[in-house]
Design a protein that fits this description.
3 helices, three-stranded antiparallel sheet, alpha+beta
């Protein structure tokens, strides 16, 4: 049974951090996001986006299992 006071926190990664984990170009990453091959970003403001750590981890895990 899970503790009812336990809160799962999911951090956010900016593009530079994502590309450090997934070594592709910025343009290739955004093309994959647009085609929905890569995780979708979370909009933080009109000009700022980030990606959920859990989404990036799941993506990496899925790629490594293939």
């Amino acid at each position: 049974m899970q503790n009812p006071n336990h809160v799962e926190l999911d951090g956010l990664l900016r593009l530079r951090q994502v590309l450090a984990l997934i070594p592709i170009s910025r343009a290739a990453w955004y093309a994959g996001v647009k085609e929905r091959r890569y995780p979708q970003p979370v909009r933080l403001s009109a000009r700022v986006v980030a990606w959920k750590v859990s989404d990036i981890q799941a993506f990496i895990k899925g790629v490594s299992e293939k």
